[in-house]
Amino acid sequence: MPESIWKRFRLKRKEVLYSVSDKAHRVYRVDKGAVMERYPSLSGNCFALLHGRGEIFGEGCLYIPKRRSETKAIVDSAIMVTDKAELMHYFEQNPEDKLAFHGYLAFQAQKAYYMIAERSYSGRSVYPFIAMVMKHMAKKIGIRTRKGIILPVSSADLAELSGTTWRTVNRFRQKFVRKGVLAPGTEEFRIVGWKRLSGYEDIPEYRIERQPDKSGLNHLPSQLFPDDY
């Protein structure tokens, strides 16, 4: 899709872009930073997705009139936006891009499915899932330094993304500090043992096939597939 149909604006950390039941008429793309999209359920639990650079979200407006999720910035971010009517007009003129776009949305849905599956397979311990979420966050918004990878998020942010509580995340932090995976501290997370973090996520009893099938989607623009997954 051409950049001419997108407009850029800034979203401050913790700023809410839209909430559940808001009117849906725009599609968004992350240009810089990251946003968290939370889907509430009837049970009271929430499932959250993290969208990083190059990823599209808010596409539900193409199918339903109101939002079913709440979306807010995890860090200071730059967001691209296009209107539903303008996007649909562009697709009428470019049917091949419409096919590619819906293929991309199917790919994103597959990723969300695997995240849900991972959470289901976590068994009695949620720690492997928290480790996986932390790994994805590091790839999307991690700040690489000589002393490790800094995640500019709070325990509450990580709890929301992993569908648990901040107390559980704090226990996770304490355990992984003892293991030498995280540096001690109460503010931002700093990963100092990347290989051990990845290894903990991939222990056999929690391992499932996570890579969605990209076959048939090779014609999509490369910027839609940042090397994050």
Characteristic key phrases:
229 residues; Arc Repressor Mutant, subunit A; 6 helices; disordered C terminus; Jelly Rolls; 11 strands; 35% helix; alpha+beta
How do you describe this structure in short?
The chain has about 230 residues and is of the alpha+beta class.
Verbal overview:
With 229 residues, this protein is α+β, with helices and mostly antiparallel strands. It has two domains: 118 residues, Jelly Rolls (Sandwich), CATH 2.60.120.10; 80 residues, Arc Repressor Mutant, subunit A, CATH 1.10.10.10. It is built from six helices and eleven strands. The protein has a four-stranded antiparallel beta sheet with strand order 1-8-3-6. A hairpin with a 2-residue loop joins β9 and β10. α1 crosses α2, α3 crosses α4 and α4 crosses α5. The protein is elongated. The two termini are 22 Å apart. The C terminus is likely disordered.
